[in-house]
Amino acid sequence: MGNTLAARRGATYELQQGYRLMMLPAVLAVVLFAIVPLAGMFALAFSDYHLIRGTNWEFGWRNFVRMLSDKRLMNSVYVMAALSVFGVIAQVLIGSAVAVGLQKITGRWRVGRVLFLLPYAVPHVAVALIWLSLFTPTLSPINAFFDLFGVTVPAFLTSQWGAIFAIVVADTWTNFPFAMLIIMAALQGISPDLEEAAAIDGATRVRTFIHITLPLLTPALLMITLFRFIDSLKHFPMIFVMTKGGPGRSTQATNYYAYVQTFQNSNVAYGAAIAVMLFLTAALISYHVAKLNQRVTT
Amino acid sequence: MKRMLKTVVAASIALTASVASLTAKADEVNVLMFGMPYTNGLQALAADFEAETGIKANIDVVGQDVFENRITLTFTGGTGDIDVVHTPVIQVQRWIQAGWLQPMTDAVAEMPGAADILAGPLGAYNVNGDQWALPFFAGVGLMSYREDVLEAAGVGVPETWAEMLEIAPKISNDEHAAIALRAVPGQGFNMFIFPMVMRAYGGSFFADYEGGDLTPAINSPENVEALKVYVELINEYGPEGAGNFNFAEVNAAAQNGQIVFAVEGTGIISQIVDPDKSRFAENTGIALPPGGPAGRSPAIGVHGMGIPASAANPDLAAKFIEWAVSAETVSKIALAQSFPDFTTASVAENPDVVAKYAAIHPDFLSTRVAALDLAIGHYRPLIPEWPALGQAIGESVNAAINGLMSPEDALEQAEQDMRDILGL
Lengths: 298, 424
What we know:
The complex is a heterodimer.
Chain A: H1 2-45, H2 62-68, H3 71-103, H4 113-121, H5 124-135, H6 141-147, H7 160-188, H8 192-200, H9 205-232, H10 237-242, H11 254-264, H12 268-297
Chain B: H1 2-21, E1 28-34, H2 37-44, H3 46-53, E2 56-62, H4 64-77, E3 84-88, H5 89-97, E4 101-102, H6 105-109, H7 119-124, E5 126-127, E6 130-131, E7 133-146, H8 147-153, H9 161-171, E8 177-180, H10 190-200, E9 206-208, E10 213-216, H11 221-237, H12 247-255, E11 259-265, H13 266-272, E12 284-287, E13 300-308, H14 314-324, H15 327-336, H16 351-360, H17 364-374, H18 386-401, H19 407-422
Parallel strand pairs in B: 1-2, 1-3, 8-11
Antiparallel strand pairs in B: 3-13, 4-13, 5-6, 7-11, 7-12, 7-13, 9-10
Helix pairs in contact in B: 1-4, 2-15, 9-11, 10-11, 12-13, 18-19
């Protein structure tokens, strides 16, 4: 009896060993391609690595201290916050609305769902070029159309809030399908019995949506908000193609500012420090939202 | 602690290096360029190079943003996966300072074809007594104008920016604006165009660049006056949204007949006057860009090919560059692409090339030569800090254009940024 148990424990142990071995390539890949470069970025952030001024390899907090008094960085955080908050709200709202609408569509029209997914498949640089054309009055068919009625559409890209609006629109167009997909999956997980029961009890569709569907969607809504918010901290291609950070420095989000510091100003260490700050912000938000998510789901 | 952090940086760079260097092969040459008519043409001729030399050329042509990211990674990591690199002249000092390029002096001395390269662009790559790259492109600033519109308004071609301001209200109407100029911020965007106005008014970036006094002087009265002209032209006489125009938008506006004047690089002007590309080309003339009280200073942009310090195959790289700038290769590209900006002198004697560009516009090649004669090599300062300075000044200039600041305040901010970047 004892021997059999030992043999069974041995089999489990071997199985566990096998699983660990199978995980090894993935662990190695993560260590080599994520952990080591990340450690390099952290070390660079504490260094004085500058491509032109020379490097003494002195390590310290100077880059982080400088960040506290860098007005351009503060401006970039403000721009990033505006882009992220407006962008994420628009994407989650539109994504959810489209998902709820599509959920009710049945039969062969369901194929239409694919149409809504298409923007998500377009590369970001191409998306930015499309919207740059649409927001450039001399190229835009929208302007040409309104011109027919003597209405002049303003040039969005030449004012700060206009440019931020334009980038949010482009970002929302390409990213709302992600929110839509997640919400659609979550909607499919909600039993139709609940809605039927509510209907029998005399609840209107709106009340059913607010009091039954929406609470059940909360974990999914939280998750997409988190994912989109973290992704939105990496704003770059839309800004690079549509405004080059302009007018002036009005659309230089933090990630774009890190690019300017690293690639234009040759200050690699300071660029890395900004990237570290972005990374830590994303990590902090992830941690808190994960905890919140846990609380909501349990 | 210091040693540990240094080791971490070295380890992360070495990891990248080891992965990237796996791609380097002894009998192949890896070329990294960013997209331009010449580089696209060169990529299409890779098989010719292999047929002639037996060496395989892997020519990678990427977008400019991808290019910058890749070279920074490759150069700082010393990965050796690039043998030949696209080298814009405005970057060369910075790259030399950072130790990213290796001198080509000895290799060029053994190239008979090097004597065929135009002296001005060639000299732009001669720094500290060494040759660091060979040029393949010299674009200069030119002006295109709608002859029919000027004739109808009874005005001539402006010789100065002040004359342009006088003419502009007479030719602006609902059908077309007077002029479009690059305005988006960046040392290769609005800072390709604005110095033409600035230098025409006697302005400069520094107190005495040629005398070696690099004290910033961007807030000088001459520069402020020039910026006011630039801002007025774009805002009062440019199309709607001109404050965010780059070369693509200027090109499109000219080809669609939405503007009368365009001041642009040769690459764009050659498209505006090409009947195959623009339906207004038949009525479009070419002239030198306007000047001012201090004369005329057409923009100039030079691009070349250099060899990274970390190149795995520098000998093959030199061979490739010699082939790439040879009269035969450049002629093929000039014929296949819209590429009149060549720096290989004898290509201008190739009858097919002359015929092609004369057919586009009879004045094109001669006006280009006249502009090249007037252009100064340090149109944009040839110092390692220029990319950072150009970016900062370009942002201030764009802020003035879009009304975020007055021209005076914008250049005051640019002056402060210049001091910060130069550590003054």
